[in-house]
Specification:
The complex is a heterodimer of chains A (about 425) and B (about 325). By secondary structure, chain A is mainly alpha-helical. Chain A has helices at about 1-15, 20-45, 65-75, 95-105, 120, 135-155, 160-170, 190-225, 225-230, 235-275, 290-315, 320-325, 330-340, 340-345, 350-355, 365-375, 380-405, 415-425, and strands at about 55-60, 85-90, 110-115, 125-130. The chains are: A mainly alpha (about 425), B alpha/beta (about 325). The interface of A and B includes residues 7, 10, 232, 419 and 422 of A.
């Protein structure tokens, strides 16, 4: 136990002290900060421009539809009537009025102009020319107001009481979308999906990152030839164990720091966002219980162990990092394939594909947490998934330790698959 | 019973396409400087790695100070300098040494104290300079070699194993290494080193074992080995032109074998031949003799005779 600890401590301390660790630990909260900042900014963007009403309405329809639209754009009867300028012309004068409106727009005295004519009243088309013509939000606003006012005009013509028209034309329904069998806690399906996706992606990313870290560590010891001095003091198996433990502890430290930093950011986001004049939108989070957290940690640890062992074996087989880029491909593919299936499983978390993938050791560490975040999973399914993953880990570590032990002091020619099998079968 | 540092009994190590060590038995008495000699590919490094439990023998037993070599604590009594040297390049020198010391069971405080002593002794700290705080790859090759010695000796091991210690050493570090070996011997430690440089072995070893093709050719105390290698040997040095010597030394009724190094000749006489006769004939031939000495055969001669020229296995590279 003593020497295992010495090895693990070196792996941990050397990494935590490295520039890589410090930079990535600082960058992660910055990235997360952007994630908090971005929705607020996007929400801000999704409001129509404050001066969307600063336009000229050229009304050639002879119906006063133009002034109705202007009033509504200005914010109703009590709004600022000076923003929108209405020009009522006969159909024959429309061309001239458009020309002068165009001049106003070009000289930036107006944002744009809206042409309303008889085709508009017939419910067909209207024309808008302006600098914000490519903003879907602004155009949507104008289109909606135009549509509402056209209906109001028709209702009025049909003899509906003007007092009732407003309540008839104005409606706002918010659609809350949910899937059947969904965890109700936390709210909408969108939030749950986003959360589940983030969990799965983070697991994929960190298992990959720290697994490769172990591989690079093995290659470094091999390349620098320090491995021989070390294995003259501690068995290769224990060296591998200490290395995997140490790097894993670095991973958990970094994840804990990131979670801590993001929780702090979340708490402080209102004053932070206020600095930029943005409102603090509530960010909905599904409820995460301590039990969920323990499960998540279990899957990270087991998944990391499984892949770290395989990556270590890759490191022991090769002599240089360049060589490792090729040889690691089969191991990396197992992970990448799991990541490719995130999307299908996200859409159908109860499918047999999802159930199978969450039982296979190489995809279970990503797929099972993904499903757990989406739908209720029977406990025995979780238990068998963990058991399968545990067995997978045992096998991976057993195989990796044998390859590692032999490969660590082999240089030059890379072993063939047949030789690898021999390394695994023969203890030494 | 003799107090043995190492006792190897009938050890065999096979690889897929060759046998690295076959049925090797040898004994290293405690407190001796022991040379493991042999050409490349003879099985020296394999033997050393088996002693250190880096690889396991297919059969046979290895005992270190009377204990099985895999028993816990045994590795902590051995210091090892591998042939291929290397340290963690990006690590601070002190931290590497502390790590390697702790792996040998030293506690941190003892390790730190000894590291400070060693760095100063080998001139890596002091005079306002402290290379201990530098990263390993900031050190010159010579300094890295010093750090590697420290790593092998930091835990004050009873047994020190040096694999080809002189390869790649500059003369100053080679001298320092020789002094260190003498010092270790004086303090009662056992030193085993492998080499194919017979001159170093000749000067330093109490006992030797010569390996070839994975087999022991001979072993024992150097004095016994030489005595057992009978015959009359003459060490001959000439000044300047030695043309006349060739004719005399070519006489097969007198000279059995000669190793010609241009100005130095190691001559083995035919059994029963008189060395005085050789001297007279050399003088008559006008050879300008600088030295004419009845000598024991050198390890080099013994090595060449017992191993033969074909001992280096074809196609074998790297570790022996």
């Amino acid at each position: 136990m003593g020497k295992l600890w010495v090895v693990a401590r070196r792996e941990y301390l050397e990494r935590v002290r490295s520039k890589w660790f410090i930079v990535s630990t600082i960058l992660t909260p910055v990235l997360l900060g952007t994630l908090v900042f971005l929705p607020a900014w996007m929400a801000h963007r999704s409001q129509p421009s404050s001066d969307v009403a600063r336009i000229i309405v050229v009304d050639a329809s002879g119906t006063r539809l133009g002034s109705r639209v202007a009033t509504e754009l200005n914010g109703g009867l009590f709004g600022d009537a000076s923003l929108t300028h209405v020009v009522e012309v006969s159909p024959a004068g429309a061309a001239a009025a458009q020309d002068s409106a165009r001049q106003e727009v070009l000289s930036e005295r107006a944002k744009g102009y809206l042409l309303i004519d008889t085709t508009t009243v017939a419910g067909d088309t209207a024309r808008y020319v302006g600098s914000n013509a490519s903003s879907p939000v602004d155009m949507g606003r104008i289109e909606r107001v135009l549509g509402e006012q056209l209906i109001a005009l028709r209702l009025e013509r049909a003899g509906v009481d003007p007092a009732q028209i407003r309540s008839i034309t104005t409606s706002s329904v918010t659609l809350h979308a949910e899937r059947p069998g969904e965890r109700s806690a936390g709210g909408s399906a969108e939030v749950t999906s986003a959360f589940a996706f983030s969990v799965a992606f983070l697991l994929y990313f960190s298992i990959f990152l720290y697994g490769q870290n172990v591989m690079r560590g093995v290659i470094e010891e091999k390349q620098s030839r320090v491995a021989e001095v070390v294995v003259a003091s501690v068995s290769a198996t224990r060296l591998l164990g200490g290395k995997v433990l140490g790097v894993g502890a670095v991973g958990i430290t970094q994840i804990a720091l990131s979670i801590g930093a993001s929780m702090l950011l979340y708490k402080l986001r209102a004053p932070l966002l206020a600095q930029f004049g943005l409102p603090a939108m509530p960010i909905p989070f599904p409820e995460v219980t301590a039990g969920d957290f323990v499960l998540l940690l279990t899957y990270f640890v087991l998944g990391y162990l499984f892949y770290a062992a395989l990556f270590a074996a890759v490191g022991a087989v090769v002599s240089t990092e360049q060589e490792a880029q090729q040889v690691q491909l089969p191991v990396a593919m197992l992970l990448v394939v799991s990541a490719v299936f995130i999307q299908p499983v996200l859409l159908a978390p109860d499918s047999s594909l999802a159930a199978t993938l969450s039982l296979i050791p190489f995809s279970a560490p990503i797929m099972m947490p993904l499903r757990l975040a989406l739908v209720p999973v029977p406990w025995w399914t979780v238990a068998s998934s963990i058991a399968a993953l545990g067995l997978g880990c045992y096998a991976a570590v057993w195989i990796a330790a044998r390859i590692y032990r032999t490969g660590l002091l082999m240089y030059g020619k890379r072993p063939t698959v047949r030789e690898l099998i021999r390394w695994i079968r023969v203890a030494r | 019973m003799q107090d043995l540092a190492i006792e190897i009994r009938n050890v065999v190590k096979r690889y897929e396409h060759h046998v690295a060590v076959r049925d090797l038995s040898l004994e290293v008495p405690r407190g001796t400087v022991y040379g493991l000699l042999g050409p490349n590919g003879a099985g020296k490094t394999t033997t050393i790695r088996m002693i250190l439990s880096i690889i396991e023998p297919d059969s046979g037993t290895i005992r270190v100070f009377g204990k099985g070599h895999t028993e816990p604590g045994v590795l902590d009594t051995i210091g090892y300098l591998p042939e291929e040297r290397g340290l963690y390049k990006k690590m601070e020198v002190r931290r590497v040494l502390r790590f390697l010391g702790e792996l040998k069971g030293l506690d941190r405080r003892t390790a730190d104290r000894r590291i400070a002593e060693w760095l100063e002794r080998l001139g890596l700290s002091g005079n306002g300079k402290d290379w201990g705080r530098a990263k390993v790859d900031e050190l010159s090759r010579g300094m890295q070699q010093k750090v590697q010695f420290i790593a092998a000796l930091l835990h004050d091991p009873e047994l020190v194993i040096l694999d080809e210690p002189f390869s790649g050493l500059d003369p100053i570090n080679a001298q320092a290494l020789k002094d260190t070996v003498v010092d270790l011997k004086r303090r009662g430690k056992t030193v085993i080193f492998s080499t194919h440089l017979m001159e170093n072995a000749e000067r330093m070893c109490d006992a030797v074992c010569i390996l070839a093709r994975g087999e022991k050719v001979l072993d024992g105390y150097v004095a016994d080995v030489k005595a057992g290698h009978g015959g009359v040997h003459v060490a001959l040095s000439v000044a300047g032109d030695a043309d006349g010597a060739a004719g005399v030394l070519g006489d097969s009724t007198l000279v059995h074998r000669v190793d010609d190094s241009n100005r130095f000749f190691e001559v083995e006489l035919v059994p029963g031949a008189d060395p005085q006769l050789l001297l007279r004939r050399l003088v008559t031939a006008g050879v300008p003799i600088e030295r004419f000495e009845l000598a024991q055969p050198s390890l080099h001669q013994i090595f060449l005779q017992s191993v033969g020229a074909g001992a280096v296995e074809e196609g074998m590279t790297g570790h022996g």
